[in-house]
Structure formats: structure tokens, C-alpha cells
Design a protein that fits this description.
Elements: H1 2-16, E1 27-34, E2 45-50, E3 57-60, E4 66-72, E5 75-82, E6 88-96, E7 101-103, E8 106-107, E9 116-120, E10 133-138, H2 139-142, E11 161-163, H3 170-174, E12 182-184, E13 193-196, E14 199-200, E15 218-226, E16 239-244, E17 252-261, E18 271-274, E19 282-285, E20 291-306, E21 310-326, E22 356-375, E23 378-392, E24 412-415, E25 417-428, E26 432-443, E27 446-447, E28 455-458, E29 488-508, E30 512-531, E31 536-541, E32 545-546, E33 552-553, E34 558-587, E35 591-604, E36 615-617, E37 623-632, E38 639-649, H4 655-660, E39 664-672, H5 678-681, E40 698-703, E41 720-731, E42 736-749, E43 752-758, E44 761-767, H6 772-783, E45 798-812, E46 815-828, E47 866-867, E48 874-883, E49 888-897, E50 906-908, E51 911-914, E52 928-940, E53 946-954, E54 962-965, H7 978-983, H8 987-994, E55 1005-1008, E56 1013-1021
Parallel strand pairs: 1-7, 1-8, 6-9, 13-16, 28-31
Antiparallel strand pairs: 1-4, 2-3, 2-5, 5-6, 10-15, 11-12, 13-14, 15-16, 17-20, 17-56, 18-19, 20-21, 21-22, 22-23, 23-24, 23-25, 24-27, 25-26, 26-29, 29-30, 30-34, 31-34, 32-33, 34-35, 34-39, 35-36, 35-37, 37-38, 38-41, 39-40, 41-42, 42-45, 43-44, 45-46, 46-47, 46-48, 48-49, 49-52, 50-51, 52-53, ...
């Protein structure tokens, strides 16, 4: 029998092991039942029923009067306490959130059992057992507050969590990708993990949220920002979990429709740019506004298939967005007359055929969840989401730089995404619970139409080049098709098969212990076929070529860069494992120690076939202890003191592996331009043309993605963060809580590509910046005379310190609210896996921070640290909502925060990101603030039916504050000997001596806040 049980356990581990990250989907309620004198009452029957629970749960108090309900889904619950000879006690409206433990103590009086004491409204608020900083945003709360249609738009009300413009690039902004900019406690936006019903949807390359879920079909959003337990891994920032809605013993649902569009938004903001025909002129232009409309109809329905046994909830909500761009009204100059770019030529034809361009975006979003009580102690849930997006009809660039001959209506992409997951909870008695879960996430990105000719892109206009046919003059930024359309993208599939098997055991040994042990696994897969089938020509008209040997080549008409090859074709898989053990040990009912440890095994796959994993971390390479405490000072859940220390590791994103280990291929070839007739000259050909290209001298070829198996640090350490927290949480009244938290975290090791000049060319090594292995490479270069003597390998530094104060009021007597203040300091030389120094670039572990040793130095030849680009010393946040008795609700979200630091930047030796005067020499961007509002009116048609009208308005005051400032001093690079950089130099003098073109937009502000915009909706609730 013992052998059979052992085999059953092993089989369960094999079947249900899955995700790299364990993920809570339930909460729990514990407590004691006592007499008025405090003595325990054993044998009390305790029943639990509520909105999130299929059927009813029941237990009996132990000899010391304690009881426990494990694995309760989020929702409101009623607890009934029954014992012969005592008055029945009923506690109603106890709100349970995922990942939290609530203490519910009850006093019973002697009397007849039929006498019932009902206590309402006294729901515990503070989780006195946990040392993590967690915020749970329930449907009852976010339904009353301003928000977008995606769950990421609500989480930034959390203190210490910001949406940062410097972590969101232009494409992400255009697509409304909020997860691309979310920063937790100083971490970059590529260091978070995202779950939907326990399924890990974090993308493999960029570390963003891979799935979107509409608010209409969400039950709760949980945000973990610090101190979380050992079952969580792979996050250096925060953990965001979404729980979708479940059914119930009654049928409920809704029909809904939302609309937003250009008629409900303010005027376009001014845009900063360089005049397309005059590189010496910077200007602000207000581009004409597109005509846009979005209609989002849908429904949701929940109920039971078998009452008290099997529930369901399903939803479907497509979105139809149409954007129309009128080319007749664009601010396009006539190059023959050189009219100012700001002149608008109303009615002038710029394109052959129609000048009205239309893009249609269609999204099919849906969810389905089944929740079942198979037996009294066995609960099962299965859920899935789909988020299928398709767009067709590309829009030409609004500045008029697009190709007039392109057939825009044919271009587009399909982006199918879906998740599916399952969860089993098996409870044995009152002490043991077994959980098994599994999930699968898949995303793809397929191009509708591929390129048919080479791509041409103008980094400089050729309007001033002698001999150019006026018909072939192009503006700065002109291209015949977009960068994305240059790829023949047949597929870009990412898959993640995940799951977890763990056991939780409650024991009394010198206090109460909650032991939890788990085994986790993730299987990731990539199948990509996305590369340029034709040459990619980049024209730098009028510029000299700065060779990698630090000598300037004087060109004839400028130079051209030809990228060939450029793209990726690869199929890879990788399996990762993790094991964790943790204990929550409560001593004397008040003091809880949270102890845990996690180990992970991770292999980074080679994209080139036939190679072993180039980076491999064994279990104890990623040993992550977690220690925390929580002290219930008075033993009544009214005051908690807590603290924690933890070591956290990133799970490496595949961007570095794809670029370094044979996936993405990118070689650039450089030639002099001698023929002004580019239109008829530059055609498809092979490279390099060492004898010259169309008469233009060949300068060099540079492989920007060298296969780096032999340039990878053999003793590389994983990307690691250490974190300390200390805090206090106090219940002021039954409704109000106040809390404070001190947090300090810092990076121990980072992983980056590090550039070392050897033999006249830059070589890139994948490793830990500042490690001895990198120092050895520096020493080799110094011995060879290609790097100045005395340079020490710079270590990656990011230190974040904060103090946060919160005041929150739960919803009662028609209103809720809260406010927070955070003081913080973000200091170092490295933002993390996403680059705030590069305005949102996400190439985890291959950012530019250490591409050259001098990038962490100033012009005096000194290595330095400074305030990082998302440092905000002061942050204020306010939220609140009030519901009138006649059905009208008003909600508000607002924030105000310091502007981000600014520093002069120089384009030096092929690299941006050199700060000659260190960080912060130009002060800060303007103080940033915004107010969003929400209003809804519920018209009761009957007891069952309600008609809801709602409106959401963002930026109600229509602020136009700039979030960025252009700090690039020269927009044409200069090359200097590295010894000069170490000895000290003056950037103004050297740039002038080189004759490099100065950026005319230096110190000009841009990225102004979006104008006021509204979204209206109507829902029929039943």
C-alpha cells in the first residue's frame, strides 16, 4: 500500500508539474471560537458559504477552538457557528481576496441554539500573517473607478508602481500597450510577471503582458510589489495576477457596448521634429487629426450547470476599430519651392489615387470558466481566454514621408493569442491540501503581405544634394515601407506550457506552522520565420563616415548602410525547473515568521542548431532565500508590524539568446555615395561589394549579431536583486487603514553584452558587468594596446530606496477612497532589462549600457553614478468614489509626481548614451499630474434588470505637460581615440572640431500628455 501511495504521488508530480512560477488563486480564513472569558470552545460546527464558492464548506473547531478554511475563491462570505447549548453566531459579508489570510475570531454565548446573533460589516482588513506588500483590487472597487479597457490601466493606482513614458516606445504607445511602461519599486518594465487565472502570460522576449482581459469579465486583480514568498520566481519587479469571473447558483449576465473615437477626444498635441528638408531646423508641428471610432459590443453570462456542483461563466466581446487618415490635409511641403514644413496645403494631392487611407483593427476577445465541486473535498476549475487581433490597411506616416506609390490597403498582421488553464484543490481533513495546476499560453504574429522590393530609408534628406532629380527628392525619415513591413514574417510563435504541483500542511509544533512545498516547470518554445528577403538601404546624405578605427572618411555625397542579412529564422525549446519550500510559523498567536527558499534550474537555448545551451544555471546557482515576519501587536488584527528580506532572480528573456546565439542575423555594409540618382541606382545585390558599390568606395562591414558561444562568460551569475522592507499597518476604524513601508533594493549581478575594442573592432561579450572575467577581457585589450591602460570593468548598479505612506477606506456608506505619498530615490548606471536611457527600448540583456567602457564615464575620464531616468523623488496618488442612493456613482483617480532627470547626451564612437557631464546636469522634466474621472448611472428596471450608463474621461483638465526632453547634443556621431576619452576632453570643443552636425532640437520638450478623451458605455445587467 505504501509503495502504491508513493507511486501515485510521483505520478501526480510528473503529470501536474508545470510553471516556473507558482501563483495564488485563493485566500483563506482562520480563527478561534471562545467564551466571553477567553477560553476555547472545541467542537463548534462552522459553515462557510459565499458568492465565490461552489456549494458549502464546513469544519469543526479543534481542541484549542481554532478553525480554518483553505482555498477560498475571492468573494463575500457568510460564516455560521453552531454548537448545542450556545447561541448561533453568524458573521456576514466577510470579504476574501486572493493570496490573503484573514483572522476571524468569534465569541459565543450560552443559550438556545435557535437564538441567533448576526454580526454584519465587521470584515477583517489586515492580513496579520503575511509580510508581503500586496494590493487586491476587486470588481466592487474597480467598477467605480476610472480605467481603460485593459486591466493594466488600473494597477498604477498602487503606491510605488508607476506608468513610465521612458519605458514605452512609440509602437507600444500607438498600440496602447500599458504593460510596456509599468515600473515597480524602481525596476524596469521588462522585469514583471503577469498571470491570467494562474497561467503565466509574460512574453518570452520583451517581458510584457502577453494577454489582455476586459474589465467586464474580471473578478479581481492582485498586485504584489515586495516581500513575496518563495513560491514566486522570475520577477525582479512585481507580480500582477488577474482572476476572471465565475458563475453561481443564479444566472447573471450582461449585454454591453462601448464607444470611443476622435469626436470624444481633444485636439492633437504638437509634435517635435527636425524639418524633413532642413536638418538645421527643429520645429513643432500639429498634425491633422485622424478620424477614429471604436465600437466594442459584447456579452457575459454566468450561472450553474448543476446547482451547488458545477458553475460556468462565459464572455465574448469583439472590438471594431476604424482609423481614417486624410492625406489631402497633411503638412507636406513642396520640395521644389522649399515651402516651410508647417505650411498646410489644403486640397493638394500628394498620393496617386485616393488620398483617404483606412486601417481596420478587429479583436475577438472572450473567456470561459468552469468551476466544479466534484466531491466535498475536491474542487476543480478550468478556464481559457482568447484575444485574436487582426488589422488591415496600413496608414502612411502622418508627416507625409510615406511612399506615394505603396498600396497601403493590402498591408496588415494577424496576432492570435490564447490561454488555457486548469486547477485542482484536494483537501484532506483540516490540515492538508494538495494543489495541481497547468496552463498553456500561445501567441503568434503573422504578416498579411510581404515586401516585393528593397527597403529605402532616409536618415537625412537629399534636398540639398546637387544633381538630384526633383522627382526623387525625399524628406528626412522617408521610407518606401515601414521597418516592420520589411520582414517576410510568416510566423513568430511563442508558447509557454506551465503548471504547478504543491502541498500545504498545517501543524502545531511550538506554534502553528503552514508548510508549503512545490515543484514547478515551464516549457517555452519559439518558432520564428521573420527576416528581410531584400536589401535594406539606409541613406545618410551629406554625412561623413566615422569609421570604427576612429578615423573620419570624407564622403562624396554621404554614405549608405546596407543591412544584409537582417532577421531571424529559428525553432528552439527550453525546459526550466524550480523547487520551493516555505513555512509560515505563528508563535503565540501574534508573531509570524515567514521562512522560505527557492531553487531554479534554467537553460538558455542556442538558436543555431546543434549547439548545447550556451548559458545554464543549475539549481543552486539560483538559490533564493526569503525571510519575513509579521507581528499582530495587540492580537486583534488592528496593528501589524512587518518586514522582509529576499533574494530575487530574473528568468532570462530570449532576446539576448536570439541575437547572440545564432537567431537574429544582422550585418551592415557601408559605402560612399557618389551617384545622386539613388532611385535608379540602388537595387538588389549581394554584399559586401569590397570593390565598391555603384562606384562608391567600400568602407567596412560590421556584424552586429556575432554568434557568441565563445564570448560568453563561463561562470556567469544570474541577474539578481536583494530587497529589504519594513512596515506598519494600522486599522484606524472598521473602515479606515493607514500603512507605511520602507523599502530598499539593489542589483547584485546583471547580465549584459559588454563591448571591448580588440584588433580595431568592437567585440561583444555576454556576462556580468564588472566581473573578473570581463576584467580579464579588458586586461587582454589593454595588453594589446587597443584599450587604454588602467580601465576597470564597471559593475551594473541600480539602487532604489523609498518610503511610502497609505491611507485607505473600504467601500461603506456609499463611498471609498485612498491616498498615498511615496518618497523615493533611484540611483546607479543601469535601469535594467528595459532601457529608460533609450526611450523604451526593450532588448533585455542587450541594451547599450555597457557597449563601450566609456558609456559609464564622463568627459573628465571618471566613472560615475547618478540618478536614473525614471527617478521621481515625490509621488502623490488619490482615488475615490461615491454612490448616491438614486443610482449615480462618481469616481476619481489622480496622480502628481516629480519630473524625471535630464542630462546632456553625445553621439560618440557609434553609440548614443554618453553623458559628458554625468546624469542630471540639465535638471528635470516638468512636474507631472493628471486627473481621470468616471461616472455611471444605474437605472433599476426591476429587481432583476438594471440599465447602466457610464462615461470614462481621461485627463479631465486637458494637461499638455511634456514627459520627455531631447537632450542629444549632436545627431551625427563623432569618433575619438579611446585614450582621449580617458585622459579627459571637452565635448563642445571636440564636436566642433569634427564638424559633426548639432541636433537643432537639443533641450526641446516633446511627448506631451495625451489630450482629454472620453469613452461612453451602456450595459444591460440581469
Amino acid at each position: 500500500m505504501k509503495h502504491k501511495l508513493l507511486m501515485l504521488f510521483v505520478a501526480a508530480v510528473v503529470v501536474f508539474c508545470g510553471a516556473l512560477y507558482g501563483q495564488e488563486q485563493k485566500g483563506e480564513v482562520i480563527g478561534t471560537v471562545v467564551l466571553e472569558d477567553g477560553s476555547a470552545i472545541p467542537g463548534v460546527a462552522v459553515e462557510c458559504e459565499g458568492t465565490g464558492l461552489v456549494g458549502k464548506k464546513a469544519t469543526i473547531t479543534t481542541d484549542n477552538g481554532s478553525f480554518r478554511f483553505m482555498a477560498l475563491p475571492s468573494g463575500a462570505y457568510d460564516f455560521t457557528f453552531i454548537l448545542e447549548g450556545f447561541k448561533t453566531v453568524k458573521r456576514t459579508g466577510i470579504q476574501v481576496s486572493i493570496g490573503r489570510t484573514y483572522k476571524l475570531d468569534v465569541v459565543m454565548e450560552t443559550g438556545a441554539i435557535r437564538q441567533e446573533i448576526v454580526v454584519t460589516g465587521k470584515s477583517p482588513v489586515i492580513d496579520v500573517r503575511k509580510s508581503a506588500s500586496t494590493v487586491n483590487i476587486s470588481k466592487a472597487v474597480f467598477d467605480k473607478l476610472p480605467k481603460g479597457r485593459d486591466f493594466m490601466t488600473i494597477v498604477t493606482q498602487t503606491a510605488g508602481l508607476n506608468f513610465e513614458s521612458e519605458f514605452q516606445d512609440g509602437t507600444e504607445r500607438a498600440n496602447g500597450d500599458y504593460s510596456a511602461g509599468v515600473s515597480f519599486d524602481g525596476a524596469s518594465s521588462a522585469e514583471n510577471t503577469f498571470y491570467v487565472d494562474g497561467v503565466d502570460t509574460t512574453t518570452l522576449f520583451k517581458g510584457k503582458a502577453g494577454a489582455s482581459v476586459n474589465f467586464d469579465f474580471i473578478e479581481e486583480v492582485q498586485v504584489k510589489s515586495s516581500g513575496y514568498a518563495a513560491e514566486y520566481g522570475g520577477s525582479m519587479g512585481g507580480v500582477i495576477s488577474v482572476i476572471t469571473r465565475s458563475g453561481g447558483n443564479e444566472y447573471h449576465g450582461q449585454l454591453a457596448a462601448y464607444y470611443d473615437g476622435s469626436v470624444l477626444s481633444g485636439a492633437n498635441r504638437k509634435s517635435l521634429r527636425i524639418n524633413p528638408f532642413d536638418a538645421d531646423v527643429a520645429e513643432y508641428v500639429v498634425y491633422p487629426k485622424d478620424k477614429m471610432s471604436t465600437i466594442e459590443p459584447g456579452f457575459g453570462l454566468g450561472g450553474y450547470i448543476i446547482k451547488d456542483k458545477l458553475w460556468f461563466f462565459g464572455s465574448f466581446m469583439p472590438k471594431f476599430k476604424t482609423t481614417e487618415r486624410n492625406g489631402n490635409d497633411w503638412p507636406v511641403p513642396n520640395p521644389a519651392t522649399q515651402n516651410p514644413i508647417s505650411t498646410i496645403f489644403a486640397g493638394e494631392t500628394h498620393f496617386s489615387g485616393s488620398n483617404i487611407f483606412t486601417r481596420k483593427d478587429t479583436t475577438y476577445a472572450g473567456s470561459l470558466k468552469l468551476t466544479g465541486q466534484i466531491a466535498n473535498n475536491l474542487r476543480v476549475s478550468v478556464s481559457g481566454t482568447v484575444d485574436y487581433e487582426k488589422w488591415k490597411g496600413e496608414l502612411p506616416a502622418v508627416d507625409g514621408s510615406g511612399n506615394v506609390d505603396k498600396d497601403y490597403k493590402k498591408f496588415g498582421y494577424t496576432v492570435p493569442r490564447f490561454t488555457v488553464g486548469g486547477n485542482i484543490d484536494y483537501t484532506l481533513g483540516n490540515n492538508l491540501m494538495i494543489n495541481a495546476s497547468a496552463g498553456y499560453f500561445k501567441a503568434d504574429n503573422k504578416q498579411l503581405v510581404g515586401p516585393t522590393e528593397p527597403r529605402y530609408y532616409f536618415l537625412r534628406s537629399n534636398s540639398a544634394v546637387a544633381g538630384v532629380d526633383p522627382a526623387n527628392i525625399r524628406a528626412r525619415g522617408w521610407n518606401n515601407y515601414s521597418d516592420a513591413d520589411g520582414y517576410q514574417s510568416r510566423k513568430q510563435i511563442e508558447t509557454k506550457l506551465t503548471g504547478t504541483f504543491d502541498m500545504t500542511y498545517y501543524a502545531n509544533m511550538g506554534g502553528e506552522h503552514v508548510f508549503k512545498a512545490g515543484v514547478q516547470m515551464v516549457r517555452v518554445g519559439v518558432d520564428k520565420d521573420s527576416a528581410y528577403p531584400y536589401n535594406y538601404f539606409r541613406f545618410y546624405w551629406g554625412d561623413n563616415y566615422e569609421h570604427s578605427d576612429a578615423n573620419t572618411r570624407h564622403t562624396t555625397l554621404g554614405y549608405v548602410e546596407v543591412r544584409n542579412p537582417f532577421g531571424v529564422v529559428a525553432t528552439v525549446n527550453s525546459t526550466r525547473w524550480a523547487v520551493y519550500l516555505q513555512d509560515s510559523w505563528t508563535i503565540s498567536e501574534k508573531f509570524t515568521l515567514n521562512l522560505g527558499a527557492r531553487v531554479e534550474k534554467e537553460d538558455i537555448p542556442a538558436f543555431a542548431p546543434g549547439y548545447a545551451p550556451p548559458v545554464s544555471f543549475d539549481f543552486f546557482d539560483k538559490f533564493a532565500p526569503r525571510v519575513g515576519f509579521a507581528y499582530d501587536v495587540f492580537g486583534d488584527s488592528s496593528l501589524k508590524v512587518f518586514g522582509s528580506f529576499g533574494i530575487y532572480y530574473d528568468v532570462m528573456k530570449l532576446e539576448a539568446a536570439e541575437g547572440s546565439y545564432g537567431g537574429f542575423k544582422w550585418i551592415s555594409h557601408y559605402y560612399d555615395i557618389v551617384n545622386a540618382d539613388w532611385y535608379n541606382t540602388y537595387k538588389e545585390t549581394t554584399h559586401p561589394q569590397t570593390g565598391g558599390l555603384y562606384g562608391g568606395q567600400y568602407y567596412e562591414s560590421r556584424n552586429w549579431r556575432v554568434v557568441s558561444f565563445d564570448t560568453t562568460q563561463p561562470d556567469m551569475k544570474p541577474y539578481q536583486k536583494n530587497e529589504f522592507t519594513f512596515g506598519v499597518q494600522k486599522t484606524l476604524t472598521e473602515d479606515w487603514t493607514v500603512s507605511g513601508r520602507f523599502l530598499y533594493n539593489y542589483i547584485v549581478n546583471a547580465i549584459e553584452d559588454i563591448g571591448v575594442l580588440i584588433g580595431g573592432s568592437e567585440n561583444y561579450y555576454n556576462g556580468n558587468p564588472g566581473s573578473q572575467w570581463i576584467q580579464d577581457r579588458y586586461d587582454e585589450a589593454q595588453a594589446a594596446g587597443t584599450m587604454p591602460n588602467g580601465i576597470k570593468a564597471t559593475k551594473a548598479v541600480r539602487k532604489y530606496t523609498s518610503v511610502t505612506l497609505n491611507l485607505d477606506r473600504k467601500f461603506k456608506n456609499n463611498w471609498l477612497g485612498g491616498l498615498s505619498y511615496t518618497w523615493s530615490r533611484l540611483y546607479g548606471n543601469f535601469a535594467g532589462l528595459a532601457s529608460s536611457d533609450e526611450h523604451g527600448r526593450k532588448s533585455p540583456s542587450v541594451e547599450r549600457y555597457f557597449d563601450g567602457w566609456f558609456l559609464t564615464y564622463n568627459q573628465d575620464g571618471k566613472d560615475y553614478l547618478g540618478l536614473l531616468a525614471t527617478d521621481r523623488p515625490h509621488q502623490f496618488k488619490v482615488y475615490g468614489a461615491y454612490t448616491f442612493d438614486f443610482g449615480l456613482t462618481f469616481g476619481l483617480n489622480a496622480f502628481a509626481m516629480s519630473g524625471t532627470p535630464l542630462q546632456t547626451e553625445v553621439y560618440l564612437n557609434d553609440m548614443q548614451g554618453f553623458y559628458p557631464l554625468g546624469r542630471g546636469n540639465l535638471g528635470r522634466n516638468d512636474f507631472l499630474w493628471q486627473i481621470d474621472i468616471y461616472a455611471e448611472y444605474n437605472l433599476k428596471l426591476s429587481d432583476k434588470y438594471t440599465l447602466n450608463f457610464n462615461v470614462n474621461v481621461s485627463n479631465i483638465t486637458n494637461n499638455d505637460i511634456a514627459q520627455r526632453t531631447d537632450t542629444l547634443y549632436n545627431d551625427a556621431k563623432i569618433n575619438l581615440p579611446e585614450q582621449t576619452l580617458l585622459d579627459g576632453w571637452d565635448y563642445i570643443t571636440e564636436v566642433a572640431a569634427k564638424g559633426a552636425h548639432l541636433s537643432p532640437s537639443y533641450k526641446w520638450q516633446y511627448r506631451f500628455m495625451d489630450s482629454i478623451a472620453a469613452r461612453i458605455g451602456v450595459k444591460f445587467l440581469f
